[in-house]
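Sequence only, no structure available. Ideas?
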Amino acid sequence: MKFYNRDEEIIFLKNVRSRAFSSHSRLTVLTGRRRIGKTLLLREALSDQRFLYLFVAKSSEAILCQAFCREASQALGIFVPPINNFADFFRFLMEEGRRQAYTLIIDEFQELESVNPAIFSHIQNYWDQYRQQTRINFVVSGSAYSMMQHIFTDRKEPLFGRADRTIHLQPFSTSTLKEILRDNAPNYQNDDLLALYTFTGGVPKYIEMMMDNGAFTVSEMIANICQPNSPFIDEGRSMLIQEFGKKYNTYFSILQGIANGYNTQSKLEGLMPNVSIGGYLKKLEDTYNLVEKRRPMLAKPGSQTVRYAIKDPFLNFWFRYIDGNQSLVELGNYSALNNIILNDYPTFSGKTLERYFIQQMTESMKYSSIGSWWESKGDQNEIDIVALGLKKGEALVAEVKRQRKNFKPDLLNEKINVLRNKVLPHYKIESVCFTLNDM
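Reply:
I predicted one. Tokens follow.
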């Protein structure tokens, strides 16, 4: 699959490099979930000039440094003496920055802590000493969100405050998803576009795996997921065990519960009565950035009317269908798993369609605030999308249905009257029904 999008990020990275090469060294932190395309972005943006890329593998410090020395020698065109510890190696790289300008990338940077916890202190020491005297475009990249946050935003950590810029790489936009499908399957249906969004969440590597395997339709995508040795089967587990550590089973149970509709703390406590849910939910939201609190539009920030949602559409799918049917996976009964997902897809994708339209509207930059609305007591009045316009006093209310025949305009008007009386008394409200045809 060709390289898509990321134009703004490429321009930004090139500009930072230009400043580092012309004045003094800069440190950029690039974060983003696994498979989001961090390494590919860095190569696309920066490999056209002197460029040293180092990947932190799980290895001993001496073996890692020996490999780094070989890579530095080749990339920088210099003799690098044998060095067996990272402190001396990093000092050597900083001193080289006096003689030549170059980009230094350390990928999976957070793994250096497992190599030697003192390494971050050594980096801080030599970075502070040499930064103003050198011309190094230093970029560190990592996929473990909680660990990267800890390294650079915890006041107690040596590298706190050292980053000049931070980029959090996001999944592809809805317009990029359309472009990719147009390029690979010009006659695609909107349901195929929804499926691509539902199963990949816009994550570039997952999209590439679909396109490279000729999975362009709903059924082809599901078949591509549900087969022996499919990378999708173990992806959620591989992605999160590193984050959660030994307590991953509890986190997995909570995430599976949310994916299956247990979206309030009380519902989760009923599902897991022997677990203190509150602390885990807080960490899932604040530390791991995997879960978000959703409140009705215009509700007060401290409102107790809260629903939890998994932020990543792929993980929402994975916990519901892959982790939720682990017995079928262990038995190798992929045909049964395929049938479960295929039969449930029309219902499951209906909620994802709401998320798609909210993302699409957010990307349009036409609204000041977008969300859903529901009454705190009961679900008798609930509206899929409420968007406040840039012009004060204007709002858009939308019902989302896969097919327009299921839309009941009179019922929506009744809900709008309740919404107007409760929170939007002086607003001019436009109503619309979004369907697959509007994607």
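The longest strand covers residues 367-374.
Hope that gets you unstuck.
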